Amino acid sequence: MTIRKTLSALALGVSAALAGASATAQDQWPLVFGDYWEVTGIDIKDGGGLKYAEWLASEWKDNLEFSKSQGWIKGYRIFSNVHARANEPDLYLVTITESIVSAAEGDKRFDAFQAWKKKTIQQMQSESGNRAEYREVLSDALLQEMTIR
After folding, report:
1. The pLDDT value given to residue 23
2. In Å, how far are 11, 30, 92, 106 from 77, measured between CA atoms?
3. 24-33 confidence digits (pLDDT tens)
4. Is the per-residue pLDDT at 126 higher than 60?
5. How far is CA 106 from CA 25, 97, 139, in A?
6. 58-70, pLDDT tens digit by residue?
7. Cβ atoms within 10 A of the Cβ of 96, count?
8. Of residues 14 and 95, which shows the higher confidence score?
9. Of 65, 29, 38, which is closest to residue 139 (Cα–Cα)?
10. Distance between CA atoms of residues 144 and 38, nearest Å
């Protein structure tokens, strides 16, 4: 075999090996699934901004800090919709979790939360209803974060 044929054969072999490796990399999904973000859209009624902000900075924060201490959530955020249009939320409340819990686990967590709050279901429902005086829940979405490989 001549040197030219040997080099051509070698080049062809290297090309085939590289093409095979490239095809394998291309077969991998380019996005990685990550945490879940529950996003609640809140409309604040006229004159209710301070009262709702105080509630968020106290009870809402305390509730989520308890959930975080239990390992139920990874974090939480508040986003302001700076240029909200008509019928859009003023705020977005976000909680971040690693996974979605089963119904049985959800029941266990609710029991632990209720014991920590030292309140009945009726008391918690009444308090939630009282917040309707100064805020309205407009939307709720469950998003899953995706990152590029």
Report:
1. 52
2. 55, 28, 8, 22
3. 567 899 999 9
4. yes
5. 39, 13, 21
6. 999 999 999 999 9
7. 18
8. 95
9. 38
10. 9
- The encoded tokens of residue 143 equal 């998003």
Q: Tell if the pTM clears 0.85, that is, is over it.
A: no
Give the 3-state DSSP-derived string for the chain, with helices as H, strands as E and coil as C.
CCHHHHHHHHHHHHHHHHHHHHHHHHCCCCEEEEEEEEEEEEEECCCCHHHHHHHHHHHHHHHHHHHHHCCCCCEEEEEECCCCCCCCCCEEEEEEECCCCCHHHHHHHHHHHHHHHCCCHHHHHHHHHHHHHCEEEEEEEEEEEEEEC
Q: Is 38 a residue whose pLDDT tops 70?
A: yes
Using a pLDDT cut of 90, give the percent of the chain over it: 71
For residue 55, give Cα distances in angstroms to 48, 59, 102, 106, 134: 11, 6, 29, 24, 11
- Per the listing, tokens 């959930």 go with 67
d(CA 93, CA 100): 18
Say which residue the tokens 């309205």 belong to: 136
Domains within the chain, CATH numbers bracketed: 31-148 (3.30.70.100)
- Both tokens of 97, joined, read 């979790």
